[in-house]
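Practice problem: predict the structure.
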Amino acid sequence: MTQPAHPAATICLLRDGSDGVEVLMVRRPHTARFMAGAWVFPGGAVDAEDIAWAATHGRGDPERLAWRIAALRELAEEVGIWLTSSGDHARRVSPEHVRELIARDGIDLDTDRLIYFSRWITPEPLPLRFDARFFVATVGPDLEATIDGEELIDATWIRPATVLEHRRAGRWLVAFPTRKTLERLSRYRRCAEVVDSAEESSVEPIMPRLRLDGRDLRIVLPGDPGFDEAGADQRSTDFLERMADAVRRRGIVPNEFDIR
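Answer:
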């Protein structure tokens, strides 16, 4: 049975550095249930409170706004960076108090600031699935992230190309959608170029498929060789068992499935 894909929102926070565009990356703890130790963009699940808040306080389509509210809320909760209609600032508060602070002080999260960049849906056979919308926002050079050391264990501003180098060298664990987003961001020298490109493009949801070739597991995208075959492969009743066996036998697997 295909599990539902939970709505999630991710924010690629960008700034202009001396050597090109920099993006804020954060690291998940090694004890995390999903993608332990991975470097990701700030973000998390869209929950019922985000949807209710969008319906009562937002402007425009509540469903559209809920993803944006979740992205900005998670940014404040995870790294203490607030993007509001009255300006950007860094202020670390306990994650459980972020919504309380927004309501008490009448903080207007700047949802119009976010540019819809991409949408990734977890392949169907997997038991934990997300429908994640990626947003881009640019900030000045002075905002620094602060973390709690538990939900996240590190944070840094870094060039997208440098992240990709760390990943290729085996120093950083980076999930497939994050890597593809970084590859796209690495094409640009300045934040304005990213914004201009994103505003000119429409976003189509991308749902990769998983392809088993012997004991090797690959992620394939629409248009890639083997994409149609992967659809049939995923529908087999023993697919998850064979995928787990590929990991156990140390076949070639994408980082996010390599649980060794």
